[in-house]
Amino acid sequence: MFAEIEPRAVDPIMAMMAAFRADPRELKVDLIVGVYKDDEGRVPVMRAVKGAEAKTLKTEETKTYVGIAGDAELNKRTPEMLLGVDHPAIAAGRVGAVQTVGGSGALRVACDLIASTRPGATVWVSKPTWANHVPVAQAAGLTIKEYPYFRASDRGLDFDGMIACLRDEVQPGDVVLLHACCHNPTGVDLKPAQWEEITKVIVDKGLFPFVDCAYQGLGKGMDEDVTGLRHLAAHVPQMLLASSFSKNFGIYRERTGGLTVLAESPEQLGPVMAQLNATIRSNYSMPPNHGARIVAEVMADPELHADWIAELTEVRERIAKMRQELRQKLEERQVTVDLSFVTDQVGMFSYTGFTPEQVQMVREEYGIYMAKDGRINIAALSSSNIDHVADGFAAALR
Hints:
2 domains; Aspartate Aminotransferase, domain 2; 46% helix; seven-stranded mixed β-sheet; Aspartate Aminotransferase, domain 1
């Protein structure tokens, strides 16, 4: 059996990470991995997370299974965090949620759900989109197509191309995958008015919205980052919403996420949730609980919640500060290209628009490592490396 397996290409991100570790230079910078780092280059454990863990250790009395759907408290809090506690769909009993194995688990469970009801369904993703969106959807047997999104000329949003594609090419019943905020990999987000226009097209054409929300709180604020999502949820009859707690709680290794379902009616929600449970049961059976308890404790405890919001604000402000400083450093080096994209983009990532040749040049000459498509992790910039990065980027941009 194993003799039939053909060798597969190494994941380019993994290959780049291995090359960084093997690089003997003392001055080298890793802008590849999508995790938040503080100014000392650490991936810290948040204060509220430590507090919730300490509380859990004192109160936890069993290690038995949590059930297929996961932590009940988390499943109550997840839709409230995304949609708002007073969202009409929640009050109407049209919303349900399951805990998943990270945001990737939420995406896979959602894709399996779609495939079970509409085998081979077409899912439209932004061009570009997060590297794992396409493999996950294809592994579930779904068909992938792309709608325009990033405009290379100014490193901004090609909204005209996007909306034209949704109007003219996407077919009724097709799934449209949208990023709620902090678009990965580009950092280019939709504005509220654009969300409203997209919502109208989705409703008028009978499209099915599927939203990935992996970075709530890292863009402009917990509520501000989901303004468009909430508008969409207020107008569409059905929706799937994958979310991750890896980034805004810094619990990457705990693999904690959620899948929220918006159904047309409470009567419709029941069979959907039953199908989700069956999908999970045949996949990983039940999710882990440690990360879920952390999030649930933080959300339920007013003191921990306030501390979490305060620290998340610090994280968000540091990312924004690094954007400002990188732009300033490049301007000081008399880079003549328009640098507004650096500060216009939001969240952890920036799409530099560098060509593969530029990416290779800054890696070979400056030891600055980034994804092949030119995506960089802004949160990996620090006071100790930003001048060196600016030197390398200035050389590439010239």
